[in-house]
């Protein structure tokens, strides 16, 4: 390659780097603004996350939380603000990624990529909602059932949770369910790329069930309720993925038939 050819490639590369920098700056600014807003109302957000605990306990007055280090609740608020900022800024960050990648895609590739970009946050929010309204209340009922009333020669054992540990539990479950709820997106993308098909998914169903329960055991707290609550919806999503992959295969077959048919 001549020096002239090398010099001719520098301008497009610099332009791409400048665009990448601008996209990153916008994404970071969106996250920073969302972080500031969430930190300002971190206490209210934490109270919202306590609702599943309240459902399990029966009332807000029955809940007792504590922090055992001076900086613990402050750090908890920072984590909570980062957690909320990730949710709020994700659409902007995803839009910046799409705008950076889109010019290098064909029109049909952009139209195929866009539904997955929309489906990803929707499925994540569905997973978070499942945690909030179903999985977390079930888990807290299980944990609260282990309390022991005092008297008759028995010590009193009462749950007084730390604020940081409760937030860690909620965040872990939300991320675990949010990721597992991406199963249809991941499997459909693999099907579009030609790595798997619906028949392969059917044949590997038994192995998938074992893997799902193993992942649920790793991602959730060490109690059966949380693990089953994560595993069962993920298996149902796996079954839904088979249907979606079939639809992708059918659409692909129709497109190939249309291309191969004479005008």
From TrEMBL:
GO terms for biological process: intracellular protein transmembrane transport; protein transport by the Tat complex. It comes from the Bacteria. InterPro entries: TatC (IPR002033). It is found in: Cell membrane; Membrane. The chain crosses the membrane at residues 28-53, 73-93, 113-135, 166-195, 207-224. Its main location: membrane. It is a multi-pass membrane protein. Pfam families: TatC. Keywords: Cell membrane, Membrane, Protein transport, Translocation, Transmembrane, Transmembrane helix, Transport. One of its GO terms (cellular component) is TAT protein transport complex. Belongs to the TatC family. NCBIfam families: tatC. Part of the twin-arginine translocation (Tat) system that transports large folded proteins containing a characteristic twin-arginine motif in their signal peptide across membranes. Together with TatB, TatC is part of a receptor directly interacting with Tat signal peptides. PANTHER family: SEC-INDEPENDENT PROTEIN TRANSLOCASE PROTEIN TATC, SEC-INDEPENDENT PROTEIN TRANSLOCASE PROTEIN TATC, CHLOROPLASTIC-RELATED. This is Sec-independent protein translocase protein TatC. It comes from Methylopila capsulata. The gene is tatC.
